[in-house]
Amino acid sequence: MVTYTYAEDIKQIAEELIEQLDEFNNINIEDINFIRTSKHIKSDFVLGQTILLNDLIQFLTGKKFIIQLPPVFDTLTDKQKSIVIEHELHHLPTEDEKGLVQHDIGEFRSIINKYGVDWINIVKESEEKVKKLKENEKKKKQQEKLEKDEISKNP
Asked: Are 67 and 34 in contact (CB under 8 A)?
């Protein structure tokens, strides 16, 4: 079962970025829910995802967007987390745009100019971290199964 939790600490990172960077002056932080999910997103190496909520969900929640973060996100350094959140904020549309903003070269250039090309190592590092997380999850499930089998044998 997938669990979701609100991520107030991530909201704080986003608030700092919005305050520091003029390119985000159109973003209302109250339009966004920041959540952690217990499951990886789409593929094992997605570090975050921005979701545009449909009209009904917007009406019910009072939010327009979700920035969702998988377990591997918490293995990143503070700098790497900021880069990922900044990247996700770039997906949010301005008032003139409809829908989420897709990746473009300008956004990648902006991140490279600020952080250098080393940010690409996040992907390489995350691959190893995801492998370890999956191995640990598998071991945990195996251990739980063994314990369950043992209990059923010796009631």
From this structure: yes
Total-model pTM: 0.71
> How many Cα atoms sit within 13 Å of 117 on the Cβ side?
0
For residue 33, the SS3 value is strand
Of the candidates 101, 31, 41, the residue with the CA atom closest to the CA atom of residue 65: 31
Contacts of 64 (CB under 8 A, 6+ apart): 31, 32, 52, 53, 58
| The dihedral sign for the CA sequence 146, 147, 152, 153 | positive
DSSP states of 100-121: PPPP-HHHHHHHHHHH-GGGGH
Which pLDDT value is given to residue 106? 62
CA–CA dist 98, 112 (Å, integer) = 26
pLDDT, position 119: 59
Per-residue pLDDT, averaged over 145-155, amounts to 76
**pLDDT at 10 > cutoff 80:** yes
